[in-house]
Amino acid sequence: MLNFPKDLYADVRIEEVTETVLSYENGKLRQNKESVTAGAFLRVYDGKRWYYCATTELSQMQRELDALAAMAQPNSEILTDPVVRRFQVNRDSILRFGYTDLRRIPNGEKRALVEDYLPLLEEVEEITVSKARYEDKHSLRHFVSSLGADITYDYQHAGLLLGYSITAGDGPFYNSQRLYAQTFEELKGKHEKLRAGIATDLDYAKNAIPVEPGIYTCVLAPEVAGVFAHESFGHKSEADFMLGSETMRREWAIGTKVGWEGLNIMDSGIPAGSGYCPYDDEGTKATETYLIKNGILMGRLHSASTAAALDEEPTGNARAMDFGFEPMVRMTATYIGGGSDTFEELLKGAEGGIYIPDYNHGSGMSTFTIAPTRAYRIRDGKIAEPLRVSVISGNVMETLHKIDGATAQTELNSSAFGGCGKMEQFPLRVSDGGPYLRVREINVQ
Amino acid sequence: MVKELYQIKQRETALNITDSRVDSVRRKNITKTGCRVYENGCIGIAGVLGEPTEATWEKAEAALSAAVPYPYAPCEGAVRMRELGKITEDRELIAKTELLLETLRKEFPGYVYSNKVYSNEVTTLLKNDLGLCLEDIQRTVTVVIVVKEECSANVYDTVIAWIGREYDLEAVLRTARQILSAHSNPVALPEGRIPVLMRSDMASDILSDYLDVQKLKKGASLLSGKEGEQLFSPEFNLVASRKSDTYSAFFDAEGMTLPDDRLPLIESGILLRGIADKKYASEYEAENTACAGGDYDDVPSLDAESGTVSVKATGTLEQLLGAQDAIYVAMASGGDITPSGDYATPVQTAYLLRGGKLVGKLPELNFRGNIFDLLGKDYLGCSSDRPFDDARLLAVYGELSK
To answer: For the whole prediction, is pTM greater than 0.90?
Structure first.
């Protein structure tokens, strides 16, 4: 039980993480790690400045809290501070993984699972180097505040990655097949899916030809549409980027038309998956935030501080990568809503364009970028020859108007590997998704 | 059984800047310890946050039952300590940062400044009961301020990045003034062939992947089978380096060091050797290049991204360019390379360099070129100085487009 300092706001986030990492190289075990770590992040606010401490000495939290309080200036009006007034006082416990808790799975079963998949990497003689990795993570987050908030929730995932270099065509091609699950059982029996993915990569590696750089209509698969939403618009919706800029506030006024009339983009910590975040790291409950509705700007993502600065309300997006960092405005699950087209209709309207089924990485500022892993020409309404593309890019504010088709079918993609990076905090688990999406006038290199 | 302790201690103070003012102070004091035991060609590791106890060592011994192979001899006997940089007290960090921001607000009022200034002390210790005892202490001050024009709808427009062993406020201000003076003066993209200045880690990041010895030997690298060949410009040199300017410990996660803390990988454009940890050195009869990395409680493995592979400088930027104009790439995010070596990246922020000074901001552009050309016939050199950035700069010719 912590004694919170008088006339200051304070909160404490304690995180206990249990992880397993198994790695194999060319079929041989290289790592078998099981770890349990715990740490805490403490915050004190006096209405003018925040004081933070990250510590692994949980028995010394009171001492750390007192030390932070000693740096701050007591403020008898702290409860009327616009930031403090926006902190929710929730008391809740959401523990979802009792029977399927990954911590209950013996290490031997995890090894057996990976070793059951390893032969897939030996079936293709062009695979010259291979790596397999299993990772699972169970985290228990506990948040308490001087206002009385007291929240506990758990999260877990397990993932399998089969990575390989294929030596074929005009250069080595690297890619990986990945599985994400929230329970161990879900990772079993995916051999055919993984085998098909490897076969597709082999064909691509053998036959891809360099693209002629230029401006193309692109059809993005849901995974790529998701990262497009994340990079092209999600980051611009993070309200901390608007602080101090009247221009940005004016140009991003709610109600402004920012894209195609069929475009809807939402962010929410509610859906299960790697963007799941029922309460953010300031204790704000998750909600579904419409960022764009029918092409019109409807909202943005907030922490309590940014909400206070812009006179809006928190949205449950104050998130920290782990106990070593303070929360900042971050996305959770970001997705584009479905349209009314079929995939075939999208292809028919993109003659001579490029289909992008997956990606390696993306980035987003005013120019968004996506580096595709594979790409294909669209010809006669069908997916044709494979193309080597370094990067596709476009101006965010222009490109959102150049979307002109979306399928009804949507997918939300989660990952156990990697995540979103913002400034010093990488990777933060997020998810993203959407429909198949057609976008005109994309710069392809 | 051999016991080995691998410990990383981080003491950090980070100041967060929001809306051009310091709005928070964050302190970290975190110790991460990996206890390793070696026996019968296997390794057992247990990690703990904080100091290890007898129970941690017992857990490491128990981990031997997982039979993770590691048939490589632990390093023995070497004793060395290196300490670089000066302790920056929190009071100095805060006072200088507030003065920095006050100066920027006064001299360049049309911008919003945000992100972080750090003071860091990282101590890396590796010792075992074979007499090995290596300790490296790195102290740095890092300034990474993102800058947004008040009248811009961009997320941010440019960056002021600086790193040093102590907080040299005048040096940070020199960097900031160069960038911000040029930023407010839009200029057109010059016609014709012009050198482009890019962070040198653009080349080292790409090449460290190609130089992975396993990939080289198994045909999985674009450079496979090309050892001894003239692949790049005679001016191009790539080294594995643990010298002070890399800001990395002088030993790797396996305790390996380099003679004089540096080993050539590509010399005068000729591929000499790939990069290898103990495993790869043994399996592929390659020279160990002290490039093992991994988390504190990981089995050490080749870490091509450890930052220790770097381009060797060929002269100051002034010496490289002479009287030529050049384009300095301040922000290029999202680029990538195809399997055949075609590199392309959007350039979000670039400045025109004329007479050794940044004179204007260029429009957004695209940069591309094949890696063999960029570091071959189109390569001018790598700067020894860091006049506008926290990185040394490559000077290359490439294809530019709007």
So the answer is: yes
